[in-house]
Amino acid sequence: MRAMVYHGPGNKSWEEVPKPQIIEPGDAIVRVDAVTICGTDLHILKGDVPAVTDGRILGHEAVGTVEDIGPGVKTIKPGDQVLVSCITSCGTCRFCREGRYGQCLGGGGWILGHKIDGTQAEYVRVPFADTSVHAVPEGVATQDVLMLADILPTGYEVGVLNGGVGPGDVVAIVGAGPIGLAAIMGARLYSPSQIIAIDLADSRLEAAKQFGATVTVNNARQDPMAVVQELTGGLGADTTVEAVGVPETFELAVALARPGGRIANIGVHGRPATLHLEDQWIRDITMTTGLVDTFSTPTLLRLVAGRQLDAGRFATHHFGLDDFPKAYEVFGNAADTGALKVVVTR
């Protein structure tokens, strides 16, 4: 089969590799019908995730059709169309029993495209299939379901829920890429009074307006602090969400929070960032970090199936599998191409 294989920082290849086989009783082999590229994949290619080694098939998001199952799989069968979640769950360890599937101790967590071969291929082996895939609701478009593999639960859980967004809040989201936009979409479910999107790219700020941001700030031309303070009487935002993963955006997210405010970090950081405790120790702030657990995926699937969330609007570019290198080029140059999420289909 063909797959997108990592060969060290800055080096990837769409090449022929062996088709995966059942290894454990709980495994499923899924034929990939649609797959996408994540900002985390770009971090991997920058060398920010050293656990990803030469020869690893990239990718952790897909919708596909079950081709084969191990003897221990009980909830799916060949022919079922499923969402392959970015998080794999053993279902029985301490953290899985608490719903913290991202911290799985039993061989799960974020492993696809990280510690084992991932989804950017014609086929993928999914361990712990009973607890790591979700049935695709009838009548929901494949590309809509694909957005629930990672970005929507990540923006919702790590941004909105960790950030404690509530009715009437002022929410500042630093970074209007796909994860920032997912946080905007999730925040709207809680009726904040203002959602402020901050980014350097006008194209992404325009997208932020379409997703529900009430105020946009291009911080190449405007001072985000001045904008947020003007909207809040000098206090700062109730919740800030860091959705980029570089030191400058983290430090900005902390600075924009009001006393007693909450800072939710989503970004994948490859370099140290400074937390200015000499300024922040007295301000009663709460800061959260997190890897998505995907406990919210069933809820989000119901909202998408009920047309309460328009997940398909993330998909801006479409490619066939053999155009995977071009898809990476377009997604990696999103500031110029306007790409939010690329959808690569069989």
Automatic annotation (TrEMBL):
Residues 178-289 form the Alcohol dehydrogenase-like C-terminal domain. Pfam families: ADH_N (PF08240), ADH_zinc_N (PF00107). It comes from the Bacteria. Its cofactor is Zn(2+). InterPro entries: ADH-like_C, ADH-like_N, ADH_Zn_CS, GroES-like_sf, NAD(P)-bd_dom_sf. The keyword Isomerase does not apply. Residues 25-130 form the Alcohol dehydrogenase-like N-terminal domain. Keywords: Metal-binding, Oxidoreductase, Zinc. GO terms for molecular function: oxidoreductase activity; zinc ion binding. Belongs to the zinc-containing alcohol dehydrogenase family. This is Zinc-dependent alcohol dehydrogenase family protein. It comes from Actinomadura barringtoniae.
